[in-house]
Amino acid sequence: MADNGNNKSSVKGSTIAIIILSIVVVILLIVIFAGIGLYVFNSSTNPVVENEITNEEVTPDAEANTMDNNTLTPDPTNPVTNVAPTTLSNDWKNTEFALNGENYKIHFDYSQLQNAGWTFDLADYGYSNGYIMNQNDKVSGTISLENPNYDARVSVGFTNTSATPKDILQCQIWTIDVDNSFAKKPVTFNLPNGIHNGSTLEEVVAAYGEPEEDDKYRADSLGYWTYTYKDGYDKYLKLTIYDDKGVTAFSYDVY
């Protein structure tokens, strides 16, 4: 009888141990499957994006070769070399001038004039979709600029000084002609060595000297002189000087 009691106690103890072990296994399985489920959920809601940032070159569409007048941005591949001076030189050959208080140095970016309110419409010249210029291309100084605050005649010519094709609006100015002769709302301009709109013939000669005889023109009936100063075949400065109004116009050409 004693042996039967011991056997029954052993069976009960083994059963309890199996039950406890089963419970532990179930709990471990629940924890494992819960972890797997959480990982799968996180992977589906936060996927890993491969190659999100690359160094591939982005090339614009062909249609992006035209530009709107209000979307000009600096071109990091073509840094401006002719930065506007803070003060004007005493030598006209440095091709510096000021227009309405803003200083320029040829060849300067057209955007400088545009930011000062001087604009034109390419459609007036038959290019409503833009005009692309290759390296060293030039457009003659027949582009008339307008500014609602002035009625002086201002015309410019464009050149592309960069190594890549550019829209004309991103190019530089190689020639400019400013004429107040018949303006009711004239601009103000300043030239090297103190010459400005209204300077007399004597002041011009004192500042720049007398040009060659072939570079002077007299319009007796209209009462003005045209003086042209040259530096080789590269740089030209032309002034219109009235007897009664002084300097009314200037033009710079830098080839």
Summary, kept brief:
This protein is an alpha+beta fold and 255 residues long. Helices cover 23% and strands 29% of the residues.
Structural description of this entry:
This protein has three helices and 13 strands. The chain has 255 residues and is of the alpha+beta class. The protein has one domain (62-254). The strands form three sheets. Strands 3, 5, 6, 8, 10, 11, 12 and 13 form an eight-stranded antiparallel sheet that branches. The longest helix is centred in the N-terminal third of the chain and has 44 residues, at 2-45.
Which radius of gyration do the C-alpha atoms yield?
Answer: 40 Å
Number of helix segments?
Answer: 3
Distance between the termini: 127 Å
Largest sheet, strands/sense/barrel: 8 strands, antiparallel
The total beta strand count reads 13
Write the element-wise H/E pattern from the N-terminal end onward: HEEEHEEEEEEHEEEE
* Low-confidence sequence ranges: 36-81
Q: Quick one: overall form?
A: rod-shaped
Beta-strand percent range: 25-35%
Name the helicity range: 10-25%
Query: How many individual domains?
Result: 1
Residue-averaged pLDDT: 79
User: Structural class of the helices, strands and pairings?
Assistant: alpha+beta
